Each structure stands twice: as structure tokens, then as C-alpha cells.
Amino acid sequence: MTESWDAIVIGSGIGGLAAAGLLAGVAGRKVLVLEKHTEPGGLTHVFRRDGASWDVGLHYVGEMEKGTLARSFMDFLSGGRLNWNKMPHDFERFVYPGLSFDVPSDPVEYQQRLIGRFPGEEKAIRGYFRDIHRVQSWNVRALCALSCRAFSVP
């Protein structure tokens, strides 16, 4: 029996799975995903060799509160089957000689901690957070707009 596909996606990393999910879910296409590894996900899973493990891929995902555009997009791609956990308050620690810095999950507090630690860099720190917010907002909106346009969704 010969199968017929509207699209073939090579690689089941986060990009390949997102593309396949959009093609199937939004455009109603029949999609085949090909992967040479033993499990899908690309760099989104842990690799284990000789008793050691590496978490090489996706570490943190922000803006996943209910009602956000990013969360709606991810819920669509996953069929709502992903459970999202809020980041712990201090989820990361940078330790260097003479410097230890805990990173809070609240971006306002993160910005304030950085300014408190590096007061001479306040203008640059505020500019950085402003720019990151703009890029993140643009990225999610652009992704949704491009997806709708590519698949002729009103």
C-alpha cells in the first residue's frame, strides 16, 4: 500500500514538530515526520551515555500563564496536553570568582536586583529589559501572524 503525504518534515526537533503540528492542525494537511534518533524531540530531551546525562536543550519557557498568546499557541500545538509549572522564585544562580547572583523568576525583581548589584549600569539594564520585552512580544505575534497567513487562516 502506497501512502500519500501533503508534507514531509525531516527532523523531529522543536522546529520540525511545530511545523508539522501547524501543517496538520491549522492547514489540515497529512504530514509525515521523519527522525533518525530513537525518540522525537531533538534537543528538547536528555541524552544519557556511560552513566552521565546532559540536558542540552530547552531549559526554561516563560510567558506560559493562561491567557497569553504564547500559551495559546503552545496549547494549540500540544492539544492542551502540556502542563506548565511556574518557575521557582530563584531558579538560576550565577557563581563566579567574587560574584554570586540569584536570578528570580519575576522580571521586575530581576531587573531591580541587577540594578542594585550594578548601579552604574542602570540605564543599560533598563534598556536591555525593554528590548527583550519588545523582541519577545514581536516574536510571538509574528509567529502567529505568519502561521495564519501561511495556512490561509482568517
List the helices and strands and how they pair.
Blueprint: E1 7-10, H1 14-25, E2 31-34, E3 46-49, E4 52-55, H2 69-78, E5 90-96, E6 99-104, H3 107-117, H4 122-150
Parallel strand pairs: 1-2
Antiparallel strand pairs: 3-4, 5-6
- Helix proportion range: 40-55%
What is the averaged pLDDT score? Answer: 85
Give the total of domains.
2
**Distance between the amino and carboxyl termini:** 36 Å
The helix count comes to 4
Q: Please state how the strands of the largest beta sheet are arranged side by side.
A: 1-2
Main pleated-sheet profile: 2 strands, parallel
Total beta strands? 6
Q: What structural category characterises the helix and strand content?
A: alpha+beta
> Which stretches are poorly predicted, pLDDT < 50 over at least 5 residues?
none
Q: Could you spell the SSE succession in H and E letters?
A: EHEEEHEEHH
How much of the sequence is in beta strands?
A: 15-25%
Shape, principal axes of CA atoms: globular
Which radius of gyration do the C-alpha atoms yield? 20 Å
Oligomer: single chain
